[in-house]
Amino acid sequence: MRVLIIAANQEQKPDPVVPLGAAYVAGAARRAGHETRMFDACFLGDEAADRLAAELRDFQPEVVGLSLRNIDDVAWPRAHSYLPHYRRLAQTVRAEAPESCLVLGGSAFTLMPELFLADLAADYGIAGEGEQAFPELLQRLDEGVLPARPRELGRRVFRAAVEALSQTEPALDLLDLATYYARGGALNVQTRRGCAFSCSYCTYPLLEGQRSRLRDPAVVVDGIARVLQQVGARHFFVVDNTFNLPLPHAHAFCAELRSRNLGVHWTAYISPAGLTAELLQDMASAGCTSVEFGTDAAAPATLKGLGKSFGAKEIVNASSWAREAGLRFAHSLILGGPGETMQTLQETVSLIDSTRPTAVFGMLGVRLYPNTPMAKLAEHEGFLRRDAIGIEPMFYISEAVRDELEEFAARKKAESPHWYFPGLEGERWVRFWRRRRAHGARGPLWEFMGEEAGAAQSAGGGTHGGRKD
To answer: How does DSSP assign 72-99, residue by residue?
Structure first.
């Protein structure tokens, strides 16, 4: 069968992200013997629908897989929904390839499958990992077991079982990796899936399961070596939800990288929970340059409300160990969650500042998703009914700070330029990021935020950065 996989994501702040999940599904379809192409909307802007229409007319696919990566940008108070963009792409498929079977997938779809299936009027959807489920669906379509265009009542969501990771390689050759590297500064790799933590807001256990499923480090590093040879990429981001657990797997990945001596640099998401100084030293010796801590909060009350499995001591230790290992580090925070008060906000800010991070990312409010503990809490507090959570972004904010949170964050942003609040930012850092990339900067741009903020203040630019291109 002729299969077209559409990677719909267009978000590029702070950097464009390689659609790794869609590439895995495309690789699986191709491995199953289907003629497979990818259509990547990332760099096409407002031309995406017209360019897709031309691709559909040229290729005439029998099956179109529309991969939905994110629902919105989770940036309260100015959250931006991606639904209108997804609708345009789905409508283009219907207009230009009316006989094709439209199948939805991706992490956004998995969180709200029935809602997306109905809104985009797709034929089928796969909730969960598509590497195995999508080829199985293609086989049933090819054999006529399922109709390509079922009537409305025949539309179905297939829920993929959480199984051992497929050995299929992502079809990265169908993507413009050179452009992603030039504009994004790094390419993505994944060494494992699954999350055993119980953070009250988090969707990773819903998307990947709670059991860690590991990739062979040798196979992962083979992929790194391959794209290094093909496009010269020497910077990578490990997209595991928490790289440092399980510890033996993290150490094994570092050992494999060292043994190859590829000369690459990388960064990863890690948690203060279960972290050791030895692992951070091991990561640094294997080419890691920076880490992002999924800290979320630092006050005991809010750490508990968010379901975190560590405390202030672990945050301080993790930061100190990162500095000793020569790693730059950032803290990602969620302000305004359960138990948040003005006092706990100040506790969190004070402790995070004391760790002297390179950068801090502050999300305001907790984006609510179905089937998470946060959704149940919001219902219990009378904030909303669980069935009221839909595709349009909805946020939980503690009543004690609801009226003051935005102003509090604005003050902090003004006095600490290396604190970044996506919901409050305009073009302040975008100009800086573009400037750095244009001059060949690679790796995470937040690694340079501290020095940029300091330069702006020293030059008398004030705390708003004042510099113009």
So the answer is: B---TTS--B-HHHHHHHHHHHHHH-TT
